[in-house]
Amino acid sequence: MAPKRALVVGSGLGALASAAMLERAGWQVVVRAQEYAALAFDDALGIWSPALAALRAWLGASRCDALASAGRFVGAVDGYHDGRGRQLCGPATDLGEGTGERPALLFLPRSALLRELRGACGAGVRFDARAGSGVTAAELRSELEGSWHMIVGADGSDSTVRSTLVPRGAVPTALGFHVYRGVATAPLAAGADASEPLLPRGRSFQAWSTSATRFAAVPTTSPACAAHAPPLDAAAWFATSRGPPPAAGDVRAAVRALAAAHFAPYAAALVDATQDAHLAPPIAARAHSPGLLRGAHGRIARAAPGGAGGGGGGGDGSDGAAVALVGDAAWTLDPILAQGGGVAIEDAAELAACTAAWAPAHGAGALDAALRAYEAARRPRLRALAAISLLPDALGQMAGLPASLRDGLLAALPRTLSSAAFEVAMHASLAPAPLAGRWRYDPPQPPPRGAPAGR
Ligand SMILES: Cc1cc2nc3c(=O)[nH]c(=O)nc-3n(C[C@H](O)[C@H](O)[C@H](O)COP(=O)(O)OP(=O)(O)OC[C@H]3O[C@@H](n4cnc5c(N)ncnc54)[C@H](O)[C@@H]3O)c2cc1C
C-alpha cells in the first residue's frame, strides 16, 4: 500500500504535536522548520485539561507524567483583583491535577513541552531544518511538485502556508494592547508578598488597575530555580498596557514603572526577581475575532505538465495537496486566555484522528472530506474561546472613571453570583461549546493499534 505523506511546516508546539500524532495515525511526516536554535525566550506555558487529555490519549500516560513532573499544577485560579489586591470577583476556583473531575492547569517551561513532543516523534518523522527565515512562498509552491498528500501549516500567526496556500484563511488583528512577560526565578524582596501571599499557596491571580493595565502571576517551574536551597518557586507573570509596544528601549524600566505605579508591591517585586534572560520584549497582542475564524483547510492544485493548471485526479493525491492549518496559523487566540498552545495540541490530535483512516487509494476527495470534518470539529471550541476573551479584555483594559465604576460594581455583586459567573466562564472556556455546562473536552482518540479508524 502506498504510504501517505505529510509535510509539516513549523517547529513550535503545533508542528511537533502534529508530527508526533500524525505519525501515530499512519502518516510518513517531514517537518520543515525555520530553525531549531534555542528559544529566544523560554516562557512558561499554561496547558489546560483539554490539551493534557489529548496528549495522554495520543502520546501515552508516561509522556504526560514526564510533563507533569517538569511543571507545576496550579492549585486555584483566584478570580480578578483590583490594582491594590482587593478581590473583585470570583473566590478561588480549585483546580485538579489532571485525573479527577476538576479541570487542571499545568504550568511548565515551553522548552520542556517542546522537548517532550520532539521525543515523542519516531522513525516515521524526518526533521529538515532551514536556517534563516524559513520556508518561503516560492518553496511552498515548488513543494507541490513533491509527492505530499497533505501540507500542514503550523507556522504561527504570520503563517506563510496560510498566505500562500489557503486563500480564504483569515489573518489575526491587533487587540489594542501590548504584553510584557517574564519568569521570576530569584527570591522576592522581603515583605513584598506580605499583603498578597498568593504565590506560595500555588494560586494564579490577575489584577486590573484603573489605568488600562493588567498584571497576573502564576506559579511554575524553572531550571534556574533548581540551584536554590531550599528550592525556589518560579513565578510566571505578565503585564498589559494599552497601545502598541514602546519602541526599543529599557523594557525592564518600562514594566517596573508600570507595576509600581498601578499594582500592589508584589508586582514590582516579581519584575525585580526576573533576570534579563527571563524578561521578554513586549509584543502587540493579536487575535482572530470570532467572525474571522474561517479557512483552516484548503486544497492547492498542482500545475499540470506544460503549465496548464491543476489537477489530474489520479486518486493517489497526484491532483494536488490538501492543506490543513493548526494552532496560531489557523486561529490565533488572545494571549491572555493562555490557551493558544493547548489549542495547537488539540488541533493536532483532531487532525490526526480525522485523517487516520484515510489512505491514498481513497482519493483526494476523501482527504478533503476528512479536513472538512477537522475544521468543523474544531470551530465551535475556537468560536467559544474567541468570544469568551472579549469580556476580560474589555473590562481589564478600561481606564479612568469607567474602571472605577467597574471595580465598584464588581465588588458590590453578591460574591456567590460573581463566583458562579467566573466558574461558568472558566468551564465554558474548556468545553467544546459555550456554556455547555461541563468542563471536559472529549479528546479525539488515536486509532486502535493495527486498525486505524477515522472519525
Ligand atoms: C504573552 C503570551 C502568553 C501566552 N501564554 C500561553 C499559555 O500560558 N498557554 C498557552 O497554551 N498558550 C499561550 N500563549 C499562546 C501560545 O504561545 C501560542 O498559541 C502557541 O505558541 C502556538 O503554537 P504554534 O505552534 O501554532 O505557533 P508558534 O509557537 O508561533 O510556532 C510557529 C513556528 O513556526 C516557525 N515558522 C514560522 N514561519 C516559518 C516558515 N516560513 N517556515 C518554517 N517555519 C516557520 C517558527 O519559527 C515557530 O517555531 C501565549 C502567547 C503569548 C503571546
UniProtKB/TrEMBL annotation:
It comes from Diacronema lutheri. One of its GO terms (molecular function) is monooxygenase activity. Residues 443-455 have a biased composition (Pro residues). Residues 1-19 form the signal peptide. This is FAD-binding domain-containing protein. Residues 436-455 are annotated as: Disordered. The keyword Signal applies. The lineage of its organism: Eukaryota, Haptista, Haptophyta, Pavlovophyceae, Pavlovales. Keywords: Monooxygenase, Oxidoreductase, Signal. Gene3D superfamilies: FAD/NAD(P)-binding domain. The keyword Signal applies.
